[in-house]
Design goal:
Length: 403
């Protein structure tokens, strides 16, 4: 950030009229502290990088141009003094947040030194701190507006390796035991941070449409191998468009990629209910053939369109997932419960399992349990997370409800 004045920094921080994601550099000698802060700040909307020492900092300052530097306080403040001197030499114009014990002599000394150097020092964040406390400390740096609405170019995202899969647990509604996870695609843009699918998923006519589907398949199977190697097998569901099933070569390619591993329990492909209804014969035919390759199709986002499946002579699908619109808040809504019970009866008729999406409160969990759902899924059990964070937070721990 050399030779840049504060006014010029405002230009870097915007894209057109939109504020882009701020950047943060975390400096702490403890790896687990850096990992925690990295994940917490990325969840708030920052693009994060990290290092352990003052010697590693100059390169990150040049490459990342951070808006914020977060410093964990070591027992000896000498290293932190070197970090502040590095920021001065690199003409750093962002802000610095110190994290350490309340009323610490070292924290107060470092803050005073930073102010003497002309660095913009934020009020220190006292340990231990909560997620809300961290958010309050950095609130002035968070984007005021959403990421750009024009879709991100998928070809560029694939080439630059910006795409990720995040995972959300499926939970047994009766025992609360983990029963697999759904893979959800995300894009981590270098300027806008994590971008929701609506900003980059192309339609079926886009030439990158196939490449995106192939990425989801290959990355999900890579992650499965990571899970089984570190924590044990996990049943994975992926989302694919109906257009994928229309291409016989793509379907054959998927079948060839299925792991020949004794712990692999099969792959579930979730396809939207509305798309299956419009292509019912195709979906039934492909579902029948893929079952012999250890792949099953789940009907996703089923709602009031459920009667379209009521009179089928063949039902080769393994799962029905009910749209969150009929799950969130269902504990206090009889109309939602009526739709749910009708779909549950349909599933029982065909002998397939049911998943309630969007379970966000304990009352909704109780209601879905009483209605007879097999599995539940939602923020009550945790937000989606990238593969490594998901594994640490869920596969290595017992299931808990967060709210």
């Amino acid at each position: 950030m050399q030779n840049l004045k504060p006014a010029e920094l405002d230009t870097i921080a915007t894209f057109g009229q939109r504020k882009v994601a701020p950047r943060v550099c975390i400096v702490d000698e403890k790896r687990h502290i850096r990992t925690f802060l990295n994940e917490a700040l990325e969840e708030l909307g920052f693009i994060a990088c990290e290092c352990a020492t003052a010697g590693e900092l100059p390169m990150l300052l040049d490459l990342q141009l951070p808006d914020l530097v977060v410093l964990g306080m070591p027992r000896d403040g000498t290293e932190t003094g070197h970090i502040l001197k590095t920021l001065v030499r690199r003409q750093f114009h962002g802000k610095v947040l110190l994290i350490g014990p309340r009323d610490s002599i070292i924290v107060n000394a470092v803050r005073q030194l930073g102010e003497e150097f002309g660095i913009q020092m934020l009020p220190p964040l006292a340990t231990p701190f909560s997620a809300d406390g961290l958010r309050a400390s950095v609130a002035m740096l968070l984007p005021a507006k959403a990421p750009p609405s024009p879709p991100v170019d998928v070809a560029e995202a694939l080439k630059a390796d910006w795409l990720e899969l995040w995972y959300q647990q499926k939970i047994d509604a009766h025992t609360l035991a983990p029963r697999g996870a759904e893979a959800l695609i995300r894009l981590r843009h270098p300027a806008w941070g994590v971008v929701p699918p609506a900003s980059f998923i192309p339609d079926e006519k886009d030439p990158q449409f196939k490449g995106l589907s192939e990425f989801v398949i290959s990355r999900a199977l890579e992650d499965w191998h990571y899970f089984v190697g570190q924590y044990g097998p996990v049943d994975i569901s992926i989302n694919l468009p109906i257009g994928f099933l229309k291409d016989p070569a793509s379907v054959r390619g998927l079948c060839r990629q299925i792991p020949d591993h004794p712990a692999f329990g099969g792959l579930i492909v979730e396809i939207k209910s509305s798309d299956i209804i419009q292509n019912l014969d195709l979906a039934i035919d492909v579902a029948k053939r893929m079952r012999f390759h250890n792949i099953a199709i789940s009907i996703d986002d089923v709602g009031t369109d459920w009667p379209s499946f009521a009179e089928l002579s063949s039902f080769p699908f393994t799962e029905i997932k009910i749209d969150r619109e009929y799950i969130t808040g269902c504990a206090d809504n009889r109309l939602q419960q009526t739709v749910c019970r009708s779909i549950l009866e349909l599933a029982d008729h065909y002998g397939v399992r049911t998943v309630a999406k969007g379970v966000e409160t304990r009352s909704d969990l109780v209601a879905t349990h009483e209605m007879g759902f097999d599995l539940v899924q939602g923020y009550l059990f945790g937000k989606p997370a990238n593969a490594k964070k998901f594994a640490r937070a869920t596969l290595a721990r017992p299931v808990t409800a967060h709210a």
